[in-house]
Amino acid sequence: MGGNVECRAELSAVSGHRGKGWEVQLDVWHDAYRREQLAWIQHLDAPFKQVGALRPDNTFLAVRSAQGPPDYVGVVHGQPHGVPVVFDAKEAKKKRWSFGLLHDHQARDLSANDLTGFSFIALMLDGAPWVVPWSALSPMWWAWRRKKLKKASLTMADAEDIGLPMSVNDCCLTMDKNCGAECGWIPAVRSFCVDRFGEPHE
């Protein structure tokens, strides 16, 4: 068992994934959304190239071979059409999240989808999960990126101002695989999308 854990940990490090526990929780929620036909979400990984031979413990060194996409793409089911969603998972242990942790190409993808869909940051900030709509965050982020804004991070006060709190229930705390559709980001996003795109399909 110890060898398997070490193998997974090393592969996570090689793949460059941070906040892996946060992504695992998101994936549990996404399974529930798929089961209950609320949304279809696909987790994307950055393309990488193996460097060197496969080790006896089934790990290997790897480097990124291209710029990675945002972490997740999918569709929130609705009428008359589903709403395309694109989002990136970010985590900050303290009460602020640095703008520098989002790359230019990811910001461009978020902006492109937000023209006709809904893009956001799934942000775990100091233990509290938030949906941060890209439509609200992007003016601040792009101003920072163009050096027109000295502010370089999103604070808890910012999250409370522009973000939507996610729903966390008892099942979420144990990452129960039966976590339901009333958990995570879908309640907040569906409510937001009603105002933006119309009433969702039930």
How is this structure best described in words?
The protein starts with a helix and ends in a 5-residue tail after the last helix. By secondary structure, it is an alpha+beta fold. It is globular, with a radius of gyration of 18 Å. It contains 7 helices and 10 strands. It has a single domain (18-45, 67-195), classed as Trna Endonuclease, Chain: A, domain 1 (3-Layer(aba) Sandwich), CATH 3.40.1350. It is 38% helix and 25% strand. The strands form 3 sheets. A 6-stranded mixed sheet has the order 1-4-5-7-8-10, with helices on both faces. Helix 3 packs antiparallel against helix 4 (134-145). A hairpin with a 6-residue loop joins strand 4 and strand 5 (83-92).
Beta-strand percent range: 15-25%
Q: What overall form do the CA principal axes indicate?
A: globular
Q: Uncertain runs with pLDDT below 50, 5 residues or more?
A: 1-19
Give the termini distance in whole angstroms: 43 Å
Mean pLDDT metric: 80
Q: What structural class do the secondary elements suggest?
A: alpha+beta
Which strand order do you get reading across the main beta sheet?
1-4-5-7-8-10
Q: How many β-strands, per DSSP?
A: 10
Helical residues, percent: 25-40%
Cα Rg:
18 Å
H/E series: HHEEEEEEHEEHEHEHH
Biggest sheet architecture:
6 strands, mixed
What name does CATH use for the topology? Trna Endonuclease, Chain: A, domain 1
CATH class: Alpha Beta
Number of helices: 7
Task: Tally the structural domains.
Answer: 1
What is the CATH architecture descriptor? 3-Layer(aba) Sandwich
